[in-house]
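User: quick one
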Amino acid sequence: MDLSQTLEIVTRSDAGMVRSHNEDAVFVNPALGLVVLADGMGGYNAGEVASGMATALLGSELEKIFARQAPSKSDAGEGARVHGAIESEIARANGAIYQAAQSQPQYAGMGTTLVMAMLYDNMMTVAHIGDSRLYRLRGEEFQQITRDHSLLQEQIDGGMITPEQARHSQNKNLVTRALGIDPTVEAEIHDYEVRPGDLYLLCSDGLNDMIEDDEIAMTLSALSANLALCATQLVQMANDNGGRDNVSVILVRVVQAFPAATQWWARFLAWLK
Amino acid sequence: MAKLILSMDGLVLKEIPLTKERTTIGRKPENDIQIDNLAISGEHAVIVTILNDSFLEDLGSTNGTHVNGQPVKKHFLQNGDAIEMGKYSLKYVHETPQQTTPAEFEKTMVLRPDVMRKTAEQMASKGFGDTQVGSMRTAVHSAPPAAVEPPPPARVAPAPPSLPSAAIQVLTGGNAGKELLLTKTLTTLGKPGVQVAVIARRPQGYFITHVEGAQFPMVNGRTLDAQAHPLGDHDVIELAGTKMEFFFKS
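Assistant: Done. Structure below.
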């Protein structure tokens, strides 16, 4: 099922005002409803290698898997087809990055964060590792859907510091999970219901470290009629505020409902092929 | 590097740099900071330092630990905090020794997951005072920069003072004469679904951009393209049949 008429997707990725390299990488497949964003880290250009490997591997492998048979609601949930495919492809990408980091000295220690969403059958499965985020604007309500895997978030959860203190913490940039750092990695994967009109934002920390959430929310709602301008504006605001990190955004607007074809219909189409 | 300044009755006794992950304070000699006074418990309190943040925890002392006059069990230390135990005072000083480049502390690093899991478990069971945060994965990136004050308030940068405030005044139509101050980062104009433009307030000035609608806005009689257009004093904007003037407030 081709979702390119159902989902409007735009991406922007910018090195920012300080860094010479852009270590972020994005991948989108509007027809499949797949969006992937990675924020690489590691010396020299290793960060770019890690994030590039993550987006390319996950993108191409998941394309192959789901092009054959589009998923439906019955494939969601823990242990089911979509989770299984995402989990195993994340594990493979992790292994590939880890191997490259181990075998080539110039890539030693490289890794990347990851946030990705797969939209199908009026829902989406979101997987993330590290501090790249997914936000949702639904009507007036702007919400952070993913929860960072960062030292700061753990400190907030543990009651050691308040969110207000966290804003001034020095440890903003310490992630507790990353792809490619260890032989195995655990991604956090959840399913969410999707409604027409929803606007999703996937971003690297270069966005949410430079602009407050309510500024992001205001920009999304003010410019939702023009996603390309909205994405450009978000990047520009991060850069106007200093642009100390690479900044990448993926915007996904749900234009209309996208139920999966019913089982017999899917089988019939498959039989025709 | 953060440090503690130990004093009694305003008399400075000692300066102690917080170099260790756990700095214990108490009457017994095995403490990192020994205060030989009966008002101080054998193991009175501990300060856990994780990179640039330090946390104070009272270890169930008889006479308690106060910070800035308030009794505390656990406390996230901030520059200038005065920790009081009996007659003694420990001032927490967390200075900026030199300006590190912003790029340095923006860099993302990874904490090894196994270390964090252990940390989380210990936090849950015994409180963070017992936590030993192990080696950081410094190989991933350059070592964390030396202690710095909270990052400069890069977030929500209000436009620099050099940018004068500006407003638009409606010239034609039912709202003629109305004035709208451009205080927000973004101000949208027009009718949603018909024609909308946005004025962005940036450090460099004010810019108008077309958002939606078949027609593009006009500035001083010239139709804009899709690019952002800088606004000058007394520019006349025409949008959805309404004229309005942009001007700087003196």
